[in-house]
Amino acid sequence: MSSTPSATVADLLLLCVDLQPVFLKAVADSAALQRRCAFAIQAAAGLGVPLLFTEQVPQKLGGTAPELLALAPGAPVLGKNAFSALGDEGIRQDIAARKPEHLLLCGIETSVCVYQTAVDALAAGFAVTLLSDCLSARRPEDARVCLDALTRAGAHVLPSETVFYSLLRDVTHPFFKAYTQLVKTATSAA
Q1: Which residues are bridge partners to 130 per DSSP?
Q2: Are 13 and 37 in contact (CB under 8 A)?
Q3: pTM of the predicted model, to two decimals?
Q4: Domain with 77 in it: what CATH number?
Q5: Domains in the chain: how many in total?
Q6: Keywords, A to Z (predicted)?
Q7: Which residues span the domain enclosing 81?
Q8: Considering the domain boundaries, does residue 116 fall inside one?
Q9: Cis omega before residue 109 (within 30°)?
């Protein structure tokens, strides 16, 4: 997952990009995306990975899906006008205050906001992992092209289960049993 195998949850931030109903309705396989993002949010919260939600122009487009927010009580929710989350000064400051080394990205839209956020994060020196099953776009082919470009630029593109299992490392982790139950629930809902 990372070029630094010793990465800990304290080094990470799960950035949930624009999971607003207006966008969820517009992307391919919306219900599956929402289930997979719910899984990632619950896994991150259970492991103690800090979370941050962004919202694209929430005063006009509405807020994050409430059922996703409910999975991470207390996680900050920050609005933005820029497509890149790092293009917003408030979000940049919030991220800088947390001092993560590695951003995990999920959300919408792969070919616009997620892509631009990943490009800016790489340019700012962050390691970036895109949770491949927790991303979507109106045009899946555009998303594939963007993920390929991001991989060439140095980002990792991995399924969320792979990422969170790598954080657990082994079956002795205190969250392992709860995590495997999350996996079973997410898999059976598919």
Answers
A1: 105, 157
A2: no
A3: 0.94
A4: 3.40.50.850
A5: 1
A6: Hydrolase
A7: 9-189
A8: yes
A9: yes
